[in-house]
């Protein structure tokens, strides 16, 4: 599998991403089976989540 930024035969591959992301956060506590994901916040570079999770260790 090639690296998208690598050169092949003297040429380069360019990728342009447009638009805003739809960010979310995911929290996983290793070995506990606990996994929580926030809601997705559409079209923003400054997401705010008002969600709370109780995690144990």
TrEMBL record:
What residue ranges carry the coiled-coil annotation? none
Q: Could you tell me which residue ranges the C2 domain spans?
A: 17-54
Q: Which Gene3D superfamilies match?
A: C2 domain
InterPro entries recorded: C2_dom (IPR000008), C2_domain_sf (IPR035892)
What domain of life does the native source organism fall in? Answer: Eukaryota
Query: What sections of the protein cross the membrane?
Result: none
Protein name (Swiss-Prot/TrEMBL) = C2 domain-containing protein
Source organism of the structure = Amphiprion ocellaris
């Amino acid at each position: 599998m090639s690296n998208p930024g690598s050169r092949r035969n003297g040429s380069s591959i360019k990728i342009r991403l447009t638009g805003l992301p739809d960010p979310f956060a995911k929290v996983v506590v290793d070995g506990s089976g606990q996994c929580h994901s926030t809601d997705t916040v559409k079209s923003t570079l400054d997401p705010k989540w008002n969600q709370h999770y109780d995690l144990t260790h």
